[in-house]
Input
Amino acid sequence: MKEEVILEVKDLVTTFDTEEGRIRAVEGVSFKVKRGQTLGIVGESGCGKSVTALSIMRLLPKPFGRIERGQILFQGQDILTLSAEEMHRIRGFGISMIFQEPMTALNPVHKVGDQLREVFQLHFPEMNDDEMWNRSVEILKKVGIPEPVQRMSEYPHQISGGMRQRVMIAMALAAKPDILIADEPTTALDVTIQAQILDLMKDLQQETHMAIIFITHDLGVIAEMCDEVLVMYAGIAAEFAEVIELFKTPKHPYTMGLLSSIPRLDSKRKTQLSIIKGMVPSLYELPEGCRFINRCAYAMAVCEKKSPELRAVGGDNHVASCYLY
Ligand SMILES: Nc1ncnc2c1ncn2[C@@H]1O[C@H](COP(=O)(O)OP(=O)(O)OP(=O)(O)O)[C@@H](O)[C@H]1O
Ligand SMILES: [Mg+2]
Output
């Protein structure tokens, strides 16, 4: 069955104005997300994963961050053309996000219960107070929060970091979004809770058929959670493929490096992404050609001249930005 494309990012370029000049944190990234499926985004720290997510949400820090080029089509409509008000409606109901840092999403001066109720009020205005209360307690229980009734009357600073993360996940899920963007949602949590949260996300996906964009460093989690994977490197899309294809036949030398330390697809082991020798180039001093050239064992003369564009490299839908193919 051909799944409907619910989100398409086309040639996204996101820049930041900094004291040292303008940097291009995301450079021409394109990908599609299908309804009911999970896309993983993986890559080393600073490669542009969160900036890609914030671009989709239109929540880039103003005035320094901006989308310079590209389209973000949500159900066929370019959300970059929407008014702030229309965008506000899409956030939550259409696309919700779990942030890397929970305090950016939680309001420190409102109780947990009030913040959850606000989500229900916004998205399900027909619900009465009792129902909102019950649904809030239920979703807190679902994300593994003990004594949810008591938590409802506490402020974010009164609960632990892991608990705050779970409250944020509960808030993101409460609206039953079409797309959930989860930016490293479980890195701060211990493994048992992490497994619980991942299971919960999968259950909810089954139930509501939402699409998930899952951002992580952990290739084990990618293997477990994702249908398709986007590998990013220094702001560009290095490779995109279905998860099994990517793990079996990685094409970009960067992806090969990432995967080389994983013994098996079902491995649960956390894999460090820093095993490839050499350093990611600074966004202030990018090479003329391929951004991976200084770490690549296969570099050729052509790689110095021009940055390669994504091209088909085999199986269905498998693309990589590399001159080897
Ligand atoms: N507010 C900002 N101002 C200037 N530069 C920024 C800003 N936010 C991000 N950047 C730059 O954009 C690049 C991409 O950052 P991003 O946060 O997307 O990385 P990431 O892939 O999410 O990394 P991590 O795995 O550490 O979360 C980095 O070089 C970062 O320094
Ligand atoms: Mg990030």
Notes: The two ends are 29 Å apart (CA to CA). The domain at 5-94+177-288 is CATH 3.40.50.300 (Rossmann fold).
